[in-house]
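# step 3/5: fold
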Amino acid sequence: MATLKDRLKTDLTSAMRSKDELRMATIRMALTSITNAEVAGTTARELSDDEVVAVLVKEAKKRREAAQAFRDGGRASRADREDAEAAVLADYLPEPLSDDELAGLVDAAIAESGAESPRDMGKVMKLVQPQVAGRADGSRVAEAVKARLTG
């Protein structure tokens, strides 16, 4: 089975052949971020698929935030480009959690940790975050946990 990084490299070649500039630039950027993560630290190493997904999640989040900043600044064409790049990256990420699935995970974590108030939010987040890695944004998870603990 090919790794996610290999899939990205294969898709980059396909994008180059089909002259798909957006896909080509986005995948190149993603591969560069992966390579930077691999050589960061004291020794270079190969990232696992989970670590590659974490890098791609981070890059997709950057694109969404940049798109919002461009929209707020009145630069709709740049915002559209950032949205398009985020969509390309989304092809390589796991399927996002639905609100119901997230609520179920949060409820289970609350029951497991015995959390009763918003002060216990850290305990719940510690249990939920590993389960939703790459499938739900941290702010969305925090919002769901806070809503369950306050309501």
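# step 4/5: annotate
The CA atoms of residues 121 and 145 lie 7 Å apart.
# step 5/5: archive (pending)
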